[in-house]
Amino acid sequence: MSYSTSVQELIDQLGRLPGIGPKSAQRVAFHLLKIPTDDALKLAAAITEAKQRVSFCTRCFNLSEGGEECSICRDPRREARILCVVEDSQDIVAIERTKEFRGRYHVLQGAFSPIDGVGVDQLRIKELMSRVGEEDVEEVIVATNPNLEGEATASLLLKFLQPMGVRVSRIASGLPVGGDLEYADELTLGRALEGRKTLAEGEN
Amino acid sequence: MSYSTSVQELIDQLGRLPGIGPKSAQRVAFHLLKIPTDDALKLAAAITEAKQRVSFCTRCFNLSEGGEECSICRDPRREARILCVVEDSQDIVAIERTKEFRGRYHVLQGAFSPIDGVGVDQLRIKELMSRVGEEDVEEVIVATNPNLEGEATASLLLKFLQPMGVRVSRIASGLPVGGDLEYADELTLGRALEGRKTLAEGEN
Prior knowledge:
The structure is a homodimer of 204-residue chains.
Chain A: H1 5-15, H2 22-34, H3 37-53, E1 54-56, E2 63-65, H4 71-74, E3 79-86, H5 89-98, E4 103-107, H6 125-134, E5 139-142, H7 148-161, E6 167-170, H8 186-194
Parallel strand pairs in A: 3-4, 3-5, 5-6
Antiparallel strand pairs in A: 1-2
C-alpha cells in the first residue's frame, strides 16, 4: 500500500515548500488530515486569500495589500531622499521594528548569486537605478545580508550607483548587541575590529 | 509596519502546523507569496481535496479514500486472524513497505501519554477490543513505537487483551540492520542482548 491519490498529492505539495523535507511533509499532511476540517480549510483559505489580495508594490517591490503601491511608498511622511535596499520584504519588517529608519525601501527580491541562477537581471536593480535617477534620492543604504551573496550584491550596487552621484552606504557588521566575544566567529570579530569607532567624549 | 492582514493570517495558519516555528512559517509564507499563483493554489486545493475525500476507516481507523472502510479492510485476501496494532496511519505505510505482513491493521490514533492528555479513552482501544471479540483474531501484534509512550501503550494493550484469550506479541527491538555496535545507544544495545536468539543449524 502506498498513500491514496489525494493524500500523496497533499504530501507532494507540502514537500515543495522551503525547509520541508519528505518526512516533514508527511507529518504535516497527516496532521492536516487529523485536525477538524474547518481548521485545515483555514490554511487553504489563507493561501488563496493572500494570493488574491497581496501583490508586489510597483515602486519598491515590497509586498502590497490592496493597492498598486505598498503602504510605505504611499506614506507621505516617509523621506524620499534615503532609500534602504534590502533582499526581501521580510527584511523591511525587521528594519521597521527598529524604528530607526524613516526613509523608503527598495526590495531586490533576492541576492546576487550566479551559481543559483540569480544574476543582475533577476534582481530589481534596473528599477532601483530608475528610482535613483527619477526620485530625489541622496543616499542609498545597502542592507543586504552580511553573507557572501549579500556582500556581492552590495559591491554590485556600489558599481552601478556610484557613477550616478548618489551616496552609497552599507549597514555595519560586528558583534551582535548582548553577544559574547568568546563565542563570536572569527569573521564577525574581524569585521567588528575593522569597523571599530573612535570613542570621544560628547559623542555616542 | 507589521505584516498586512492576509499575510499575517497566512503566517499564523502555517505556524500552527507541527514542526513549523514562527521563523519557518514566515519563510514559507513569503515563498508562497513569491511563487506563481497557480502553484500556491495547488497546495490550497490539495488540502481542500484531501479533507473532502479522505476519512477514517470505520473498522481500523486507517485513512480511507472513497469509502467507509479502507482499502486494506476491503481486501478479502488480507488475513483477518492477525491484527497489527499501530499508533498512526503512517506506520501502516512503513509496515506495508516490508511486504512481510498479510494481516490487517488497527490504528490507535496515538499512544498512551496521560501527561499530554492521551488516556485510554482517547485511543481506539475499545474498538480494538470489539474487533478482537467479533472478528476471528488469533494474534495481535503490537507495533507501537519502541519509546516510552509506545511501550506504555503495549503494556496497556496486553492488560486488556490477554484476558480475551488472544495471543499478544510485540515487534522486536534491537540494533537496526546495517547499524554499528559502537554507535548504538545503551538502551538499544540492552534490548538487543535481552532479545538474543539461539543460533542453531537448520534454522534462520
